[in-house]
Structures are given as C-alpha cells and as structure tokens.
Amino acid sequence: MNSLFKSITVSKEIRQERLNVCFGCEFFTALGTCGMPVIGEDVEVGGKKVHLCGCVMAVKTKFKYASCDAGKWKKAQIQLGDVNTVRKIRKFLKKLDYLPSSKISSAMVMEMYSFHNQTHGSKTKNSNCTPCILQAIHELKTWSNQIEGNA
Ligand code: SF4
Fold it and tell me: Among 16, 17, 50, 60, which is most buried by a count of CB atoms within 10 Å?
C-alpha cells in the first residue's frame, strides 16, 4: 500500500468500530449502503433534516476524511505532509478543468493515474481508453471534493 493511501485511511480497528455502528443503524441497508444506494435520501435525526450519502459503507468507513452523515461517527485528521499532496492534486485538477478531453496529453494522463493510484490504492499506469481516463478523473475529483474541509 503506498504512503498517501495509507495516510488517508484509518486503522482496521477504527474501520471496524465505524462499521459496527453502521451495522446497528436504522439507515444501514441490506445492500450495505447508508440510505438509498447512490442517490442517498433525506431523513430526520434528532429533529434535524439530514441527507444520507447512499455510499457503500465498507468503502466509506476506510477513509479518514469520511464521517457519518447522522453524526454517529466522526472523521479522523489527515497529516500536514499529506495536505501538500492534496493541494498538488487540486491544482492539477484545476488545470484539467480548462482542457477539452482531446487536449489532455499522455504525460497528463500518466500524472493523473499517479494521483489516482495514490488516493485510491489502485495500480493503473496508463490508458488510451478515453472513457476510462474520464472515469478516473471523475473519481479523483470526487475524492478531492470529499476531502474538502479536512485538508
Ligand atoms: S454512516 Fe451513519 S447514518 Fe449511515 S449507516 Fe452508518 S451509522 Fe447509519
């Protein structure tokens, strides 16, 4: 496991504690998601309206930046060194925002996969498949948006 991925994920014990809370939660579904899969749903918790994310909890509970939408478990802190990497990734994604997909160079694709591998623990080196590249960029953007506020 690479060091950035390791630094943004929690220990097995913390993940299990989080999962145990989910297993006992009224919003945990038979599909293993928090509320309605993918789209989530609005519920009331302690008199307040809360939007459940619809995420697969076996995945979401791994990440330090993740937290329970209903406040049943909290996010964990990411270290300063990793914050610099997160900033680099955001800067890179901003560059991509202004480029049509036909203008993304192979060097940028390689850089994108390097960031994607660091943040998702995947091992892809490169790809010529445009939908695959766009999907990986989308996943990296989702990761960056989710981590917002914690780094
Ligand atoms: S994240 Fe929170 S609200 Fe969602 S299933 Fe787990 S404990 Fe319940």
Answer: 60
Residue 50, in any domain of the structure? yes
Render pLDDT for 50-107 as a digit per residue (tens, 0 to 9).
999 999 999 999 988 889 999 999 877 666 567 777 888 999 999 998 888 888 888 8
The count of structural domains within the chain is 2
The pTM score is 0.60
Query: Which numbered atom of ligand 1 lies nearest the CA of 71?
Result: 2
Q: Are 55 and 34 in contact (CB under 8 A)?
A: yes
The whole domain housing 32 covers 3-60
- Ligand 1 center from residue 138 Cα (angstroms): 25
Residue 112 is assigned to a structural domain of this protein:
yes
Tokens encoding 144: 């960056």
Q: Which residues contact 50 (CB under 8 A, 6 or more apart)?
A: 42, 43, 44, 69, 70
